[in-house]
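Possible regression after last week's pipeline update?

I re-ran a chain I had predicted before the update to compare outputs. Posting the input and the new output here so someone can diff against the archived version. Not blocking, just want to make sure nothing changed silently.
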Amino acid sequence: MNDNAALRQQIRSILNGARAKVHDYTGLYADEDLTSEVLRVCDSVTEVVASGPSLGQARLIVEDRCRRLAQATDRFIPRDLASVSKARAQAVAAIDAYQDAALELRTADNFARHLGPLLKRRSV
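New output (post-update):
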């Protein structure tokens, strides 16, 4: 497995933790804080990939979708299973978009590193 594939797998496995938190979230317990737990997992991706504007924008979307899921599963309001399911799917889709943004940043960084030596050579 090459370095790029290993990095892709590492990012995917980190964000699978965030997806699991979204799938397991019930909203029934006072000590559950979905948004901060998912964002903590997403922020751990920046240890592997340098942060950028597209990653920051994707993080804001993840935060918004997790808040919507938390509101849809609030234990003090009647639950509409369709809206909970929709909010859960949107939160997972936002995490997928965050993963895509992280991989895109990594690919652009790799491309720039490989192109750098070519640009530094003298022309003949």
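Follow-up from reviewer: compared with the archived run. The longest helix spans residues 81-120. Marking as no regression found.
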